[in-house]
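Q: what sequence does this backbone want?
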């Protein structure tokens, strides 16, 4: 009888141990999907950017599709401001604007809510005054550009109280705030993880007029030789 009891006790302990293992294992073994990385090979060196699809999914998908389509190969950094940012991805070496796909939805506020800001080394989408106009052009912040961050609008309609650039507004119709282009900011979707020294070299190049642009064009073209997904 005692022997039988010991067998049952041993079996029970084994089951408890297995239950403990299985209760811990899923969390312990769970693996997060690595953030995709893209290598941008330029005429001044390589830049590797890490992208954040968990924070700006449509923007990252859009950028990766342009990479897969070889859209960026042979384009230039057509706007370089050493105290601001470096911008490229839209024009070839002859300053001809490349054909793009449909514009993408602005995800700046969602990305900001998840921690992405226009700080040094971050990758963001360029756009016109229309917040929904981003396509292929991107820029890399070379300083902290907090003024480019989207402005989060409080709940309510009208919005009871809203402060922007030191001025406070009260009972503002929500549609008025949503329609204000300057409040949308720019969507950050990645960051330079290697080659920031190359970005520093690009931002320091002499600039002037070039093609259709009156200022800020590198006098010696800085080209994107290729953009490829890092395996």
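A:
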């Amino acid at each position: 009888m005692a022997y039988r009891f010991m067998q049952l006790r041993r079996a029970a302990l084994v089951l408890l141990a297995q239950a403990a293992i299985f209760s811990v294992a899923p969390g312990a073994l769970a693996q997060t999907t690595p953030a995709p990385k893209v290598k941008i090979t330029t005429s001044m060196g390589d830049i590797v950017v890490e992208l954040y699809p968990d924070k700006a999914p449509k923007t990252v998908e859009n950028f990766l599709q342009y990479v897969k389509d070889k859209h960026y190969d042979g384009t230039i950094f057509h706007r370089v401001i050493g105290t601001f940012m470096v911008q490229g991805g839209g024009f070839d070496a002859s300053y001809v604007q490349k054909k793009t796909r449909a514009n993408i939805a602005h995800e700046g506020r969602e990305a900001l809510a998840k921690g992405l800001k226009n700080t040094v080394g971050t990758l963001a989408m360029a756009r016109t005054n229309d917040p929904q106009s981003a396509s292929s052009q991107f820029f890399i912040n070379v300083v902290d550009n907090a003024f480019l961050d989207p402005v989060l609008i409080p709940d309510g309609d009208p919005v009871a109280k809203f402060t922007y650039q030191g001025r406070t507004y009260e009972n503002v119709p929500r549609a008025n705030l949503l329609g204000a282009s300057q409040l949308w900011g720019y969507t950050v979707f990645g960051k330079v993880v290697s080659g920031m020294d190359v970005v520093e070299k690009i931002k320091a190049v002499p600039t002037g007029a070039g093609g259709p642009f009156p200022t800020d064009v590198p006098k010696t073209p800085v080209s994107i030789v290729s953009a490829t997904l890092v395996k």
